[in-house]
Amino acid sequence: GESVGLHLPTLSVQEGDNSIINCAYSNSASDYFIWYKQESGKGPQFIIDIRSNMDKRQGQRVTVLLNKTVKHLSLQIAATQPGDSAVYFCAENESHGNNRLAFGKGNQVVVIP
Amino acid sequence: DAGITQSPRHKVTETGTPVTLRCHQTENHRYMYWYRQDPGHGLRLIHYSYGVKDTDKGEVSDGYSVSRSKTEDFLLTLESATSSQTSVYFCAISEPATDTQYFGPGTRLTVL
Q1: E-strand spans in A25-106?
Q2: Do A44 and B90 touch (CB under 8 A)?
Q3: For residue range B58-80, what is the model confidence (pLDDT) as tens digits?
């Protein structure tokens, strides 16, 4: 069957380099954001999240940056590895309580060994 | 995998037949969701549940129904499958305190 990554913007990155994946969101009322990673044939996997009262959050080899002024979210992956090859997409939650997320379509990351 | 299983993992069926997909969680989370994922689209919400017997529609609910009789199980039913329902279906769970949703491994459904 077709891969979820088909027709998505693709970022090709050399192994060991840093990757930056971008996401624009539309709802200024959104106050919680999540990055997911999805490998072929698997379900989306939580990577990192950030709330709107922060502009940066770091995890293991990943950093999320939030710019509320321009409604932009980015995911930085340090020292990209072959296992980082996947589709990455952002999600936003505009309110607490109903736990409904809106998902972006994603970006395909291809790591070149 | 956050304690989420989906069954079956793959299914091929014919137009007009009923299909039920099962999502099972061991986390005792209150919220459960069904999404479909198609090339060119992000994840789209079909139905969700905010407790036993409490469900509501998502953005693409036509042709689907759900039931939740126990905290751990959330069933998605296609009463009469159509070719447009060929997709990969994901179940997710969340804990209200964090808002993060965790996903199951998916079910690939093909309707011929």
Answers
A1: 32-38, 45-51, 56-58, 62-67, 72-77, 86-93, 102-103
A2: yes
A3: 999 999 999 999 999 999 999 99
